[in-house]
């Protein structure tokens, strides 16, 4: 990545982190509930053969209610574990035990791994975190590249819909992109659903 692109990303991360820090906890929870309601109403989410969902950081839109709703209707739900530079998704259930990763993210302590066959069997959906998104599907992560690598590999194996989750204040005019940055297929905020044109 060029120094110019890295600098643009760093400045945008700092700006969005400031915005997120200014949101009161009660406001964050109310907006999270609206986001989850929009997500859970999507046909692709409810019908997904495999639904891949992360548990959010305190500053992010809370996703635990989506995970619980999917488990409640007996969907196959997987959550990510950080394995060096890669994300490994494992099957989760109501009784799954969770712990904090070295990055401070809640992840399942154990579970059956997501296999390529799970993605090829039926339509799969991955719910993707990000610090910022734009209306073209551009996504700015936290700098580790974990979701970019996962999406690139998963999309080679089978069709998978990537849905970005964000507060409206995280939607920006343009996210700086380089060649290895993957875009999302849809973005859901507390006020709207954004479907970019020509994502792939």
Describe the structure.
It contains six helices and eleven strands. It is globular. The protein is of the alpha/beta class. The relative contact order is 0.18. It has helices spanning 3-21, 25-40, 43-46, 64-72, 116-121, 146-157, and strands at 50-52, 77-83, 86-91, 98-100, 106-108, 124-128, 132-133, 139-140, 160-165, 186-188, 193-194. It has a single domain (3-194), classed as Rossmann fold (3-Layer(aba) Sandwich), CATH 3.40.50. The two termini are 21 Å apart.
CATH topology-level name: Rossmann fold
How many domains is the backbone divided into? Answer: 1
Unreliable sequence segments: none
Report strand %: 15-25%
**Helical content, roughly?**
25-40%
Widest sheet: strand ordering: 3-2-1-6-9-10-11
Compute the CA-based radius of gyration: 16 Å
Please render the helix and strand layout as text.
Layout: H1 3-21, H2 25-40, H3 43-46, E1 50-52, H4 64-72, E2 77-83, E3 86-91, E4 98-100, E5 106-108, H5 116-121, E6 124-128, E7 132-133, E8 139-140, H6 146-157, E9 160-165, E10 186-188, E11 193-194
Helix pairs in contact: 2-4
């Amino acid at each position: 990545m060029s120094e110019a692109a890295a600098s643009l990303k760093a400045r945008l991360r700092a700006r969005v982190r400031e915005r997120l820090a200014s949101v009161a906890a009660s406001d964050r929870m109310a907006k999270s509930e609206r986001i989850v309601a929009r997500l859970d109403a999507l046909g692709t989410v409810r019908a997904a053969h495999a639904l891949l969902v992360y548990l959010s950081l305190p500053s992010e839109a809370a996703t635990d209610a989506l995970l619980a709703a999917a488990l409640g209707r007996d969907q196959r739900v997987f959550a990510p574990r950080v394995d060096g530079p890669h994300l490994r998704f494992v099957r989760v259930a109501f009784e799954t035990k969770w712990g904090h990763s070295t990055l401070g993210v809640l992840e399942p302590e154990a579970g059956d791994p997501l296999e390529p066959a799970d993605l090829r069997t039926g339509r799969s959906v991955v719910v993707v975190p990000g610090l910022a998104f734009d209306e073209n599907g551009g996504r700015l992560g936290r700098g580790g590249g974990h979701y970019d690598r996962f999406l690139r590999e998963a999309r080679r194996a089978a069709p998978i819909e990537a849905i970005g989750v964000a507060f409206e204040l995280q939607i920006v005019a343009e996210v700086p992109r380089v060649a290895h940055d993957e875009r999302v297929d849809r973005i859901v905020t507390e006020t709207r659903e954004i479907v970019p044109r020509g994502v792939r």
